[in-house]
Amino acid sequence: MLLSHESPLAIPTELDSIHNYYERMVFTALREKIPNRFGSNDYTADIACVALNNLPPRYIRHDVDMAFYLSPNERQEMVDKVDKAVTQAIKFVDSSNKAYDAG
Question: What is the pTM of this model?
Fold first, then answer.
């Protein structure tokens, strides 16, 4: 989430709800594609960052707003983009020379 940490800027709390809609979609795809390695570890975080950096940002305040305004075709396009980005991110991270814990 955009502002899920303490901010030294004293940003109003109503801005805490702003987030990239693709984040939850990427996390869901990761949970499905790498269930044995999904969790709070460097491997998963690196894949999520690579995937999100290859998707266009879609900032919203409430997920229900995005769901209401998307057509079924637009939703499927987003799902397809996420699937492709996550698959490519897994390949990219797996091909790196970085050592990750198995957990």
Answer: 0.80
> Interhelix angle for 42-53 vs 21-33, to 10°?
130
Query: Within a domain: residue 12?
Result: no
Q: Which has the higher per-residue pLDDT, 3 or 79?
A: 79
Handedness of CA 50, 39, 7, 16 (dihedral sign): positive
Q: Structure tokens of 101?
A: 């814990």
Instruction: Say if 7 falls within a structural domain.
Output: no
Number of domains in the chain: 1
CA pair distance 10, 93, nearest whole angstrom: 36
In a domain, 84, yes or no: yes
**Block residue for tokens 């030294």:** 8
pLDDT tens-place string over residues 63-93? 887 878 889 999 999 999 999 999 999 999 9
